[in-house]
Amino acid sequence: MRAVVQRVNGANVVVDGETVGEIVGQGLCVLVGVTHDDTPEKAAQLARKLWSVRILQGEKSCSDTAAPLLVISQFTLYGDARKGRRPTWNAAAPGGVAEPLVDEVVDQLRKLGAHVETGRFGADMKVSLTNDGPFTVLIEV
Predict the structure, then answer these.
(1) For residue 129, which of 119, 139, 114 has the smallest C-alpha distance?
(2) CA–CA gap between residue 139 and residue 81 (Å, rounded)
(3) What is the model's pLDDT at position 70?
(4) Could you say which of 39, 57, 76, 130 is catalytic?
(5) Is residue 82 classed as helix, strand or coil in its secondary structure?
(6) Annotated catalytic residue, options 6, 35, 75, 108
(7) DSSP structural state of residue 83
(8) According to the model, what pLDDT value does residue 122 have?
(9) Which of 39, 65, 84, 94 has the fewest Cβ atoms surrounding its Cβ within 10 A?
(10) How far apart are CA 63 and CA 75, in angstroms?
(11) Per-residue confidence (pLDDT) for residue 68, from 0 to 100
């Protein structure tokens, strides 16, 4: 699993004109990509990392500050554009594999005590955020 994590001061996801997920104030916007060999165990590991990574102001984590997370599925994180002009998506897991694993990341975060908002899997989503810093990291498990 791969996640692009942005420290934000507010973020939201809109689908067909409707806000489906939103966090206000300091938190994390997390784009999650799934590949073919990912497992529920990796999803739990990613959730623990997201909950405890110390990238908020003052080197704090979401677990330290109860900061919310906005988790959005993002198959394009496994795109490969090394050859030609069109990326390939061969490394991205198909929806039937990826969706339950993204849901597992969200479920595991909530079990840890996190407030989690989400996008809508497979939808054409419009994501807006204010990157705080800017601060963006890549986490792989």
Answers:
(1) 119
(2) 20
(3) 98
(4) 76
(5) coil
(6) 75
(7) S
(8) 93
(9) 84
(10) 27
(11) 98
DSSP 58: G
User: CA 17 to CA 36: how far, in whole Å?
Assistant: 32
Distances (CA, A) of 57 to 39, 68, 119: 31, 14, 25
- Return the amino acid letter for 7: R
Characterise 71 by phi-psi region: left (phi > 0), alpha (psi -120 to 50), beta (else).
beta
The half-sphere exposure of 88 on its side-chain side, counting CA atoms within 13 A, is: 5
Question: Catalytic site residue 121?
Answer: no
- Distance (Å, rounded) from C-alpha 79 to C-alpha 18? 28
Question: Using CA atoms, how far apart are residues 54 and 64, in angstroms rounded to an integer?
Answer: 9
Catalytic one among 6, 35, 74, 108?
Answer: 74
Record the pTM. Answer: 0.95
* Cα diameter, the chain: 45
Query: What is the 3-class SS of 91-129, one letter each residue?
Result: CECCHHHHHHHHHHHHHHHHHHCCCEEECCCCCCEEEEE
